[in-house]
Design a protein that fits this description.
alpha/beta; TIM Barrel; eight-stranded parallel beta barrel; two-stranded antiparallel ribbon; 12 strands; 34% helix
Length: 227
């Protein structure tokens, strides 16, 4: 038997300094700051993102969610906001990951893979060697108005489990997580980290009781031995 590893937690859609402090107090290892998106919750201006990022403790990742698909504008966003991690929510089509890493040394890159089916496994395997981590979410890039996150939907975790088993970079699991299903997510997928937005919110605002219960359930499942 082995102990289930306690995953790190990224609280996304942070909209204020107070929300950032609350999430960190309960144990968040990373905070997601959402810039302009074609759809979805949590979007705030870059000036506010920069202001929040300046208050985040050094040990906690400040993550900019970007829908940009070209290297030059992604670089500009990072420099304006001062975050230490970039989460690329769409496919990179102009420039390369190597260009980003060369221009932004010390800045971590997380690529979102929107898990739609078995084809997502091949996409993840192709991208993994070029980034620091993958985030598996439930968006849909083929829609007229793209869904790049924040859908509140659970995707096929069996595909996520295959991705986690076949890539060598850390995997964050996102999409419809909450206090009720997080134990199942950890047991089945075994992710390095969890990403949650709506599951710890009420009417868009971070809910302290939901946050407390979410972290309590993670601690509980991490103490159980896996057969």
């Amino acid at each position: 038997m082995e102990h289930i590893q306690r995953p790190r937690v990224k609280i996304c859609c942070i909209s204020s300094i107070d929300e950032a402090r609350l999430a960190v107090r309960y144990g968040a290892s990373a905070l997601g700051l959402v810039s302009a998106m074609p759809s979805g919750p949590g979007v705030i201006g870059e000036d506010l993102i920069a202001a929040i990022a300046r208050t985040i403790p050094p040990a906690v990742a400040s993550i900019l969610l970007t829908s940009r698909q070209d290297v030059p504008s992604i670089i500009e966003q990072q420099r304006r906001t001062g975050v230490n991690t970039l989460q690329l929510c769409d496919r990179l089509i102009e420039g390369t990951y190597e260009d980003l890493r060369a221009a932004l040394p010390g800045i971590a890159l997380i690529q979102v893979i929107h898990v739609t089916g078995e084809e997502s496994l091949q996409e993840a395997k192709a991208i993994a060697p070029h980034v620091h981590a993958l985030l598996l979410d439930s968006g849909n890039q083929s829609l007229a108005i793209k869904e790049l996150g924040g859908t509140g939907r659970v995707h096929n975790w069996s595909v996520s489990m295959q991705i986690r088993a076949q890539v060598e970079v850390p995997i964050f699991l996102a999409g419809g997580l909450n206090a009720e299903n997080v134990a199942s997510a950890i047991a089945l997928v075994g992710p390095y980290g969890l990403d949650i937005c709506s599951g710890v919110r009420t009417d868009g605002a971070l809910n302290e009781m939901k946050l407390k219960q979410f972290f309590a359930n993670i601690t509980r499942i991490a103490s159980i031995e896996r057969l």
